[in-house]
């Protein structure tokens, strides 16, 4: 029973470290990178003036009434 706490803590510390590395890698490659690609693809063809005119025509803005 000597050094039982130290031995188990070392095991759990390494285990927690590798699990957290795995979760970080899964988040980066499973969520963050696809999200960055989706934003880049969206803004590649995005025309803010066209979007503004569409919202203006729909009456979204009080300062710019629809024509």
UniProtKB/TrEMBL annotation:
Q: So what does this one do?
A: Component of the cytochrome c oxidase, the last enzyme in the mitochondrial electron transport chain which drives oxidative phosphorylation. The respiratory chain contains 3 multisubunit complexes succinate dehydrogenase (complex II, CII), ubiquinol-cytochrome c oxidoreductase (cytochrome b-c1 complex, complex III, CIII) and cytochrome c oxidase (complex IV, CIV), that cooperate to transfer electrons derived from NADH and succinate to molecular oxygen, creating an electrochemical gradient over the inner membrane that drives transmembrane transport and the ATP synthase.
How is the protein disposed in the membrane?
Single-pass membrane protein
Q: Which domain of life is it from?
A: Eukaryota
Q: Name one GO cellular component term.
A: mitochondrial inner membrane
This protein's major location comes to mitochondrion
Gene3D superfamilies, alphabetized: Mitochondrial cytochrome c oxidase subunit VIc/VIIs (4.10.93.10)
CDD domains per the UniProt record, alphabetical: CcO_VIc
Keyword Thylakoid recorded = no
Q: Which Pfam families match?
A: COX6C
What name does this protein carry? Cytochrome c oxidase subunit 6C
One GO BP annotation is: mitochondrial electron transport, cytochrome c to oxygen
Asked whether the UniProt record includes Mitochondrion among its keywords, one would answer yes
Describe the subunit structure.
Answer: Component of the cytochrome c oxidase (complex IV, CIV), a multisubunit enzyme composed of 14 subunits. The complex is composed of a catalytic core of 3 subunits MT-CO1, MT-CO2 and MT-CO3, encoded in the mitochondrial DNA, and 11 supernumerary subunits COX4I, COX5A, COX5B, COX6A, COX6B, COX6C, COX7A, COX7B, COX7C, COX8 and NDUFA4, which are encoded in the nuclear genome.
Q: Where in the cell is it found?
A: Mitochondrion inner membrane
Q: Which UniProt keywords apply?
A: Membrane, Mitochondrion, Mitochondrion inner membrane, Transmembrane, Transmembrane helix
- Describe the family membership recorded for this protein in Swiss-Prot or TrEMBL: Belongs to the cytochrome c oxidase subunit 6c family.
InterPro entries registered for this protein in UniProt: Cytochrome_c_oxidase_VIc, Cytochrome_c_oxidase_VIc/VIIs, Cytochrome_c_oxidase_VIc_sf
The metabolic or biological pathway listed in the UniProt record of this protein is: Energy metabolism; oxidative phosphorylation
Source species: Acanthisitta chloris (rifleman)
């Amino acid at each position: 029973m000597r050094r039982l706490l130290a031995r188990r803590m070392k095991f759990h510390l390494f285990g927690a470290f590798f699990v957290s590395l795995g979760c970080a890698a899964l988040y980066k490659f499973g969520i963050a990178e696809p999200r960055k690609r989706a934003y880049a693809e969206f803004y590649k063809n995005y025309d803010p003036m066209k979007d503004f005119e569409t919202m203006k025509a729909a009456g979204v803005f009080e300062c710019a009434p629809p024509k």
